[in-house]
C-alpha cells in the first residue's frame, strides 16, 4: 500500500525529525554527532511548577521572551503537588522544575526518594508566612503586646500558642498545623518558629514519616492551593505556605497571618531550579541557556526597585500560572503584606529574586537545610561536618550558575553583581527569630545551640530522644 503525503505533511515530518535529533532522547552531548559547538542540545523543554508567586522567574522568562532568545521552546506545566512534581523530574516527564530547596538535597541523601538531582540556581529569597485560624487568633490576640497605634507588635512569638496547644491537648484534640511537604522550607520554618517559642514540633523516625514523636503541635502535609480550604474546614488550625495563599486567607476572612519567613530567618533561601544531574551532564549548553534566561528574568523582577512588579502580578494572575486574584497577588509582590484587614505593612523584602545574590546557590544554604533535617530526625544519625560540606557541594552547583552569569555580564545583559566572588559560604548569619547565629562552616556547633532538637549522637525512637 502506498501512502501519499502532501507537501505540508512532508515539511512537518522533516521538522519533527530535525527536532528529535536536537532534543529527543537520542540527542548527543555538545561536541558529539551533528550538534554545533555552543548550540543548545535540547531546545524543547517542559518545566514543572506549583501555583505560587515565587515561580515568577519561570513565567517571566517565558512571557518576556528570555527563553526564546536563548534558543529554547519552554512549556510551563503546573503540578498537583510537590510529590508529583518531584516524581516528574526524576522520571523524565519534566526536564526540570520550580522546586523546594530541600527536595534535591533530600533525594541525593536518599530521604524519601533516592535520585541524583542538582540545584544550579536559587530562584528567590523569602516568600512564605504562617497563618492562624480566626479561632486561634481570637484566643491569642488579647494577650499580644501592641504598639501606640493599637496594632500588634511583630514579629509574633510562637510562645503565644503554648496555652492554646495545651488546652487543645488537654481536651484530647491535638493542635494541628499544615505545611506543604516534609522537606519543604515551610516545614523547617514552621518548626523553627514553634521551637523558638518553646513548642516541640515533633521528631521523625524511620518508622514515623509524619514527624510526630513527642510533638506539642502536629504538622501535616497539604498542597499550597488547598491550604485556605483546609483551614476553613477546621482540619488544621494554621499553616505555613507561600503566597498568595496567606493573603487569600485574609481576603476570605478565614485566617490571620502572624509572621513572615523573613521575620523567622532573615533572607531565607526558598525555591531552586531542580534538575537531574544527568540532564546537566548530557545537555551542558541547554543547561547554560536555561540558567541565562532565568537569571535575566530575576534581574527584570527586581529592576529599579520593583518597577516591573505590577506587570508581573498581571502575568502571574493568569489561570495557567498562579490563577489568583490580582489584588491578592499584588499584596505581597509589590512591597507590602497584609496581616489583617486594615493592617497592611511595608514588606520590601518579602519576595527577592535577584538582590542580595538571591540566584546564587550557596553551599551554606544547602547545609542549613541539612542541619534542619538532622535537627528533626530526618537524618537519624550524627554526621561529621565534612559530610555536610560534601553533600552540599554534590547538590548545589555554583559552577553552573557562574558560567551562565559571567557570560551575561560579559555581554552586558547582567550587572557585575550577578556573578559574585565567593567560596560558596555566606558570612555568619544573624536575623533569626531566636537570636541564634548560623555559620555554614560549623554545622554541628550550630545544632548544639538549640534547646529543642537533636544534637551530637542523639537519636529518636518511638518513645523519644535517646
From TrEMBL:
Protein location: Endomembrane system
UniProt-listed PANTHER family: ALIPHATIC SULFONATES-BINDING PROTEIN-RELATED, BLL4572 PROTEIN
InterPro entries: NrtA/CpmA_ABC-bd_dom (IPR044527)
GO cellular component, one term: endomembrane system
PROSITE patterns recorded: PROKAR_LIPOPROTEIN (PS51257)
Name of protein: Nitrate ABC transporter substrate-binding protein
Location (main, coarse): membrane
Keywords of this entry: Cell inner membrane, Cell membrane, Membrane, Transport
UniProt keyword Cell cycle, yes or no: no
Keyword Transport: yes
Organism superkingdom: Bacteria
Amino acid at each position: 500500500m502506498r501512502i501519499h503525503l502532501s507537501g505540508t505533511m512532508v515539511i512537518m515530518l522533516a521538522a519533527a525529525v530535525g527536532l528529535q535529533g536536537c532534543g529527543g532522547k537520542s540527542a548527543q552531548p555538545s561536541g558529539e554527532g551533528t550538534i554545533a559547538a555552543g548550540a543548545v542540545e535540547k531546545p524543547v523543554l517542559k518545566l514543572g511548577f506549583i501555583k505560587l508567586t515565587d515561580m515568577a522567574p519561570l513565567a517571566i522568562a517565558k512571557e518576556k521572551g528570555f527563553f526564546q532568545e536563548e534558543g529554547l521552546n519552554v512549556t510551563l506545566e503546573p503540578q498537583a503537588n510537590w510529590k508529583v512534581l518531584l516524581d516528574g523530574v526524576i522520571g523524565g516527564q519534566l526536564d526540570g522544575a520550580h522546586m523546594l530547596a530541600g527536595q534535591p538535597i533530600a533525594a541525593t541523601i536518599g530521604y524519601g526518594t533516592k535520585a541524583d538531582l542538582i540545584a544550579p540556581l536559587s530562584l528567590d529569597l523569602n516568600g512564605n508566612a504562617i497563618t492562624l485560624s480566626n479561632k486561634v487568633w481570637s484566643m491569642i490576640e488579647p494577650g499580644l503586646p501592641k504598639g501606640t497605634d493599637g496594632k500588634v507588635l511583630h514579629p509574633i512569638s510562637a510562645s503565644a500558642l503554648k496555652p492554646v496547644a495545651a488546652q487543645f491537648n488537654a481536651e484530647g484534640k491535638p493542635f494541628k498545623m499544615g505545611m506543604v511537604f516534609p522537606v519543604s522550607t515551610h516545614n523547617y520554618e514552621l518548626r523553627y518558629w514553634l521551637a523558638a517559642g518553646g513548642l516541640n514540633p515533633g521528631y521523625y523516625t524511620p518508622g514515623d514519616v509524619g514527624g510526630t514523636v513527642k510533638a506539642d503541635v502536629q504538622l501535616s502535609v497539604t498542597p499550597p492551593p488547598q491550604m485556605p480550604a483546609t483551614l476553613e474546614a477546621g482540619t488544621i488550625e494554621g499553616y505555613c505556605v507561600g503566597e498568595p495563599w496567606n493573603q487569600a486567607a485574609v481576603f476570605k476572612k478565614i485566617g490571620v497571618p502572624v509572621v513572615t519567613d523573613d521575620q523567622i530567618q532573615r533572607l531565607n533561601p526558598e525555591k531552586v531550579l531542580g534538575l537531574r544531574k544527568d540532564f546537566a551532564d548530557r545537555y551542558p549548553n541547554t543547561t547554560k541557556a536555561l540558567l541565562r534566561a532565568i537569571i535575566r528574568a530575576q534581574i527584570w523582577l527586581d529592576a529599579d526597585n520593583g518597577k516591573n512588579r505590577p506587570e508581573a502580578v498581571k502575568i502571574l494572575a493568569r489561570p495557567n500560572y498562579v490563577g489568583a486574584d490580582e489584588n491578592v497577588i499584588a499584596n505581597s509582590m509589590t512591597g507590602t503584606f497584609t496581616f489583617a484587614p486594615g493592617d497592611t505593612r511595608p514588606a520590601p523584602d518579602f519576595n527577592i529574586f535577584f538582590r542580595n545574590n538571591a540566584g546564587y546557590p550557596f553551599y551554606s544554604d544547602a547545609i542549613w537545610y541539612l542541619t534542619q533535617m538532622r535537627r528533626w530526625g530526618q537524618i537519624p544519625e550524627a554526621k561529621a561536618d565534612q559530610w555536610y560540606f560534601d553533600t552540599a557541594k554534590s547538590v548545589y552547583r555554583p559552577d553552573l550558575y557562574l558560567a551562565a552569569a559571567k557570560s551575561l555580564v560579559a555581554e552586558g545583559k547582567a550587572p557585575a553583581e550577578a556573578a559574585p566572588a565567593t567560596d560558596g559560604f555566606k558570612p555568619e548569619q544573624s536575623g533569626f527569630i531566636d537570636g541564634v547565629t548560623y555559620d555554614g562552616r560549623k554545622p554541628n556547633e550550630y545544632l548544639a545551640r538549640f534547646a529543642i532538637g537533636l544534637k551530637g549522637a542523639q537519636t529518636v525512637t518511638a518513645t523519644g530522644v535517646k
